[in-house]
Amino acid sequence: MADPSAHVSRWRDLDKLLLRPGNLVGPNFEPGPELRDDLRAYVRVLVVGAGGLGCELLKDLALSGFRNLEVIDMDTIEVSNLNRQFLFRLQDVGKPKAEVAATCVMERVSGVNIVPHFCRIEDKDLEFYSDFNIIALGLDSIEARSYINAVACSFLEYDSEDNPCEETIKPMVDGGTEGFKGHARVILPGVTPCFECTIWLFPPQVKFPLCTLAETPRTPAHCIEYAHLIKWNEAHVGKSFDADDPEHMQWVYSEAVKRAELFGITGVTYSLTQGVVKNIIPAIASTNAIISAACALEALKIATGCSKTLSNYLTYNGLEGLHTKVTEFVKDKDCLVCGPGILIELDASISLQKFIELIGEHPRLLLSKPSITHHGKNLYMQAPPVLEEMTRSNLQLPLFELMGKLPKDIIHATGMTCVNGKKMSCLRKLRVMFKGIVDGVADMDTAGGA
Among the options 211, 223, 338, 426, which is catalytic? Predict the structure, then answer.
């Protein structure tokens, strides 16, 4: 028979936050045991990334009373991960990170259910992300953060006065670490600045002069960048390098080793190759633990209202002594991602094909090969081929009819754009308004065009 005191002891610290009132609680906070039960029964959290920070997040959330967790990660476990990604063991090398991390936490924390997803974040549709109450990010790339940020902001709706509708806000908690430095931030789309509002916080990537790479390499990083930027294009004409493809990364590593041997340079490793190509600074386990704890606490605040949330960006620096600081950044009212959406006025006769061409030329969008969705329905998908074939017939139909003959509504476009000279996937929200509508019926005599 189970010892009832064990259950009390397990949630003792959590109960101190949830069972009694306080001066810093949220406006809707009502202390009581029901709050703890609701947290475990109804709150669903998605952890994006199962690396050093993601492993800590899964463990901390499970131990903080969250029962319904899911984790998504496209990587498999490597030997170099084992020094800081503590859920993994040597026998796990080669296995999907998400699956191993989920199994490990469920074995150690009774009652928690974690569903793993071994795939790219772009492989999931909007409906998948809409099912979660909170999204926690443990990512190591700007591109991935930007994509998830756009997905969360796509659910946001505004009223007639351009105020965000509270029930459509999808909270995010974002953590990041670089060596002894880290950050934790709370993103409430439409309320606090989103990731794109503060994209300027990220320093520009270090770039080496091509003449140094080609003629006088002096460091392992020079050899790696030579293989990445010069040798790849020479050997793979017309083929783009994919930093997330293990075969591509292995090729760059092999070429970098040859380059280093030619110039008598030591220190080229596979993990360093990944770090240089992806601009990743090696992680430190203690920093991951500190930042994860901050993120898990913010997720608990959001879910229960037991305290006011972080406002809104915490930085940590343990390089020399210890320094932490909270900065309140301001939302960009003209943000393309978390704002009300770009307004596009169209004639009711315009076809979906013409609409796709227009947004590709729009100066604030410049989306190439966009896929179009409307309230979760695929109007046209560029990929995979089976979906492209299924939705191809919609291209010649009027967009007005495909949208249910609504005079105005929200459409989402997913495509490729160029940021700082680098192509990346992005999602944009568009407010489409049709001209020539009389009593909900299109005047089809109106000429097409924007």
Answer: 211
The reported pTM is: 0.72
Determine whether 211 is an active site residue. yes
DSSP for 95-118 reads SBHHHHHHHHHHHHSTT-EEEEEE
Same domain, yes or no: 58 and 158: yes
Please report which confidence band the pLDDT of residue 403 belongs to, taking 50, 70 and 90 as the band edges. Answer: confident
Q: How far is CA 391 from the centre of its chain?
A: 27
Residues 189 and 239 both lie in one domain: no
Residues 6+ apart with CB under 8 A from 414: 370, 371, 373, 425, 426, 427, 428
Stated length of the chain: 450
d(CA 329, CA 85): 31
Answer yes or no: do 160 and 74 share one domain.
yes
Residue among 142, 230, 246, 245 at smallest CA distance from 222: 230
50-102 tens-digit pLDDT: 988 999 999 999 999 999 999 999 988 888 788 888 899 999 998 999 999 99
Contact call for residues 432 and 409 (beta carbons, < 8 A)? yes
